[in-house]
Design goal:
By secondary structure, the protein is of the alpha/beta class. The chain has helices spanning about 10-25, 35-50, 55-60, 70-80, 90-110, 125-145, 160-165, 180-185, 200-205, 240-250, and strands at about 115-120, 150-155, 170, 185-190, 195-200, 205-210, 225-230, 255-260, 275-280, 280-285. The chain contains 10 helices and 10 strands. β9 and β10 form a beta hairpin. The N and C termini lie far apart (about 65 Å).
């Protein structure tokens, strides 16, 4: 018999066990203040599955039983935050045009390849990766710069990756995009689709979206990167998880490569060879 609605409870021990599981699996650090959020987001799901409570639910998602893998994905989708927007923290993209791109392109001039390789880690519904591509396209246009680029964008949520791949958004998002960028890189729907806009194919062509778990090395890119963006993701991680992730990023970065975090994130408690150039912008030494 299924429990009555609203009969699911979350004891301190159950929350502690659940928090440890989430931290190990995806690096997310749930503070005690998140207990009510966890209860709110998962109670109805536990009832749908006909399980007595959180203890049994945790045993289920930890198991190798049929359906447990899909349930883990459902859990990660529900428990993670996916807030993003076009040109978020726009100052970074200004610095990208003024300083980082000229530096990277100059460094590429002495190599056999002129392609920039970029990783958008924790990309959510895709606005960050598309913003980056717009900026790169505009830089090529304005500076008459001859280079190629490839952007690989990942997120743990299967649901948001599906949205990102489509590149279709509600019309209200265009308020976040500079006017000249809107004209060139955004297409407006008509008729039954007039409430939507989509990213121009020119912007989409050099981006690939994949589902991944940043804490699972097997699911992360193995290629060397000139730049990694991981913004507003590590703020939810424990220090140990952030250290592990930064170590992985350093292993992926080319010498002279850049790591961009958000303005609310700091690496002051992380051991790394990265050099801080400005708030939220770090560089791996050329030497």
């Amino acid at each position: 018999m299924k429990p009555h609605k609203n009969s699911i409870n979350l004891t301190p021990q159950e929350f502690s066990d659940f928090r440890d599981f989430i931290n190990v699996e995806i690096g997310l650090h749930l503070t005690s203040q998140k207990k009510s959020l966890v209860l709110h987001r998962l109670s109805s799901r536990i009832q749908e599955l006909g399980l007595p409570g959180f203890k049994e639910y945790l045993s289920y998602v930890r198991s190798n039983t049929s359906g447990a893998e899909n349930e883990r994905q459902f859990l990660f989708d529900k428990i993670t935050t996916h807030t993003t927007r076009f040109f978020r923290e726009s100052k970074q993209f200004e610095l990208l045009q003024e300083r980082l791109l000229p530096d990277l392109i100059k460094a590429k001039a002495g190599t056999s390849t002129k392609k920039l390789t970029i990783w958008s880690a924790g990309c959510s519904t895709g606005e960050e990766a598309y913003t980056l591509a717009m900026v790169l396209e505009q830089f090529k246009r304005d500076q008459k710069a001859a280079f190629d680029y490839k952007i690989t964008a990942n997120d743990i949520s299967r649901k948001v990756i599906q949205v990102a791949r489509k590149g279709i958004y509600g019309r209200d998002v265009i308020r976040q995009i500079p006017k000249d960028y809107r004209k060139r890189y955004i297409q407006h729907g008509t008729g039954p689709f007039e409430a939507y806009v989509r990213v121009h194919p020119q912007v989409k062509r050099n981006i690939t979206f994949h589902q991944n778990n940043l804490m699972n090395p097997a699911s992360n890119p193995e290629f060397a990167c000139d730049m990694i963006l991981c913004r507003n993701t590590m703020i939810y991680f424990s220090r140990a998880s952030r250290q592990q992730l930064i170590n992985r990023f350093i292993g992926n970065l080319n010498k002279g490569g850049y790591l961009l975090t958000s303005f609310t994130e700091s690496l002051h408690d992380i051991d790394s060879p990265l050099i801080q150039l400005s708030p939220s912008i770090y560089k791996l030494s050329d030497s």
